[in-house]
Amino acid sequence: MEDVKNFETALLKRLSHAEFDKEFLRSASGSIVEMRKMGFDIHEAFPKGKIRFDRVFIKGQFPPDMIPKLGDAFKINGLNRFDVFPIGILSPDLYRFQLTLKM
User: Fold this and answer.
1) Helix (H), strand (E), coil (C) string for 6-50
2) Where does 2-102 sit in CATH, by number?
3) Is the CB of residue 52 less than 8 Å from the CB of residue 19?
4) How far, in Å, CA of 1 to CA of 4, rounded?
5) Which residues pair with 58 in a beta bridge?
6) Which residues of 84-93 are buried (b: 16+ CB within 10 A; e: fewer)?
7) Which residues face 81 on adjacent strands?
8) How does pLDDT run across 61-73, given as a tens digit for each residue?
């Protein structure tokens, strides 16, 4: 549980420099932490948008046994886009993902 708190603290610190309103920042952070609790390995999360940030772009990976849980990930609050890429020959037992949370 402490690992989740440390992760969320670091995530909020990284995203708080953007001009997100506090409600969206809490919502996006909660969604990302929820995905981590589901078993997704989050590698990156950073603000995205022109002029004013309005999205968070997230990258990570997950093992094939998580494929049945993808339906739960599609219910994440603010989910705008979710792309999955098989890593292939180098790591056939992992998939990379990219997703976007939008305000």
Assistant:
1) HHHHHHHHHHHCCCCCHHHHHHHHHHHHHHHHHCCEEEEEEEECC
2) 3.30.70
3) yes
4) 5
5) 45, 99
6) eeeeeeeeee
7) 100
8) 999 898 888 888 8
